[in-house]
Design goal:
By secondary structure, the chain is α/β, with parallel strands linked by helices. It is built from 9 helices and 14 strands. The strands form 2 sheets. Strands 7, 8, 9, 10, 11, 12, 13 and 14 form an 8-stranded antiparallel β-sheet that branches. Strands 3-2-1-4-6-5 form a 6-stranded mixed β-sheet.
């Protein structure tokens, strides 16, 4: 009889149907929440913001382990963990970059490594190695190559320690582990908070591989969108850049989740990198407020706000001549912009972070 759910790690119980870990029969391997997620895609208890990151870090630090830190390349800024080395003192960290396959093929791995290395230096995060992974949703020749690379890294860096896989919610950690560890049985879904506790997955020759709950990020759109709308925002297929040239003041709506307003003084380029299922609407800036309030939650969806008045405004820094800048809406995607732009304003749900960085692509 299992004491903990094989899918999410929660302790099993059969006394409270509305609580985590409920099973009709204690002989079950999976809690009812994991069973319904796996077989019906139904989320009975939403734990998007219910797992304290301090608890997860405390449990990781209690282990003598090397850390495999999983980061989503598409949602890179929202996947970063500030002061990670301070949160995991003395731990060796190997960075695994997932969802390579949703980025354009024209972006080379060399350029990705260069971009990530520069961002880590800026964030003062130190890692021992970096690996790029993709195509992990289904077993394939490419995914097996990634698994082989990770297996090599485990053998090379473990040094008689356990192995812990950790990262922000929705970075593809459990999906990756289901490929790495055959018959692991971890429950996977788009919903943050699927894994609820440390799960020992694999034991051999005196070491254990652990899965961990996704670290919460309250400043990412992924932490507040309901499950049915996450499907629109999280890409599972290669993104198709939204390319636009502008010559006058324009406004771009990302569904109803964000609005980016441009005041220009000449020709400028705006390229959007978002899920194929998320519509981008372009219009004149002068009419943007009226159209937003008229179409929010109708044509402009999904949305968190009902009116532009409840949204926070972020102001972008000036773009230097001949440089490109990314406007990153955490958990949603980004616009890459350059040209003769006088002012950029970003309107997004209050509490969601917007970053401005040197262009990835």
């Amino acid at each position: 009889m299992a004491e903990f759910c094989k899918g999410c790690g929660i302790k099993l119980q059969n006394t409270d149907k509305k609580a985590l870990g409920y099973v009709p029969n204690l002989d079950a391997d999976y809690c009812q929440r994991c069973f319904k997620l796996t077989h019906y895609g139904t989320l009975t208890i939403n734990m998007q913001q219910g797992i304290a990151s301090e608890t997860t870090f405390s449990k990781i630090n209690a282990l003598n382990a090397v850390i495999f830190w999983v980061v989503d390349l598409f949602s890179f800024e929202a996947s970063l963990i500030p002061s990670l080395n301070e949160k995991l003192p003395g731990k060796d960290i190997i960075l695994i970059l997932t969802k390579r396959d949703v980025l354009p093929k024209t972006l080379s791995d060399e350029k990705i490594y260069e971009f990530v290395d520069e961002r880590l230096q800026k964030e003062k995060i130190s890692v021992k190695d970096m690996l790029i992974c993709g195509h992990m949703l289904k077993k394939s020749e490419i995914s097996m190559e990634c698994v082989d690379e990770i297996s090599w890294a485990i053998a090379n860096y473990r040094e008689n320690k356990d192995v812990v896989f950790m990262g922000m919610a929705n970075v593809g950690k459990s999906t990756l582990l289901n490929q790495l560890v055959e018959d692991s049985g971890i429950t996977t879904s788009r919903n943050p908070g699927t894994t609820l506790d440390l799960i020992p997955l694999y034991q051999e020759e005196g070491f254990t591989i652990y899965d961990t709950p996704g670290i919460e990020n309250p400043n990412s759109m992924l932490s507040i969108l309901p499950p049915e709308e996450l499907k629109q925002v999280i890409p599972t297929k290669p993104i198709r850049p939204f390319v636009s040239q502008i010559y006058e003041n324009q406004s771009f709506a990302v569904g109803g989740l964000a609005r980016v307003d441009f005041k220009v003084k000449g020709n400028a380029s705006v390229v959007g990198y978002f899920s194929r299922d998320l519509d981008i609407h372009r219009g004149k800036l002068d009419d943007a407020d009226r159209l937003w309030n008229m179409h929010i939650n109708k044509m402009l969806k999904p949305s968190v706000d009902k009116t532009v008045d409840t949204m926070r405004v972020w102001k972008a820094p000036r773009i230097k001549k001949d440089e490109k800048m990314d406007i990153v809406i955490h958990g949603v995607g980004w616009f890459c912009v350059n040209g003769k732009i006088d002012e950029i304003s970003v309107k997004v749900h209050d509490g969601i972070t917007v970053s401005f960085r040197k262009a990835m692509i």
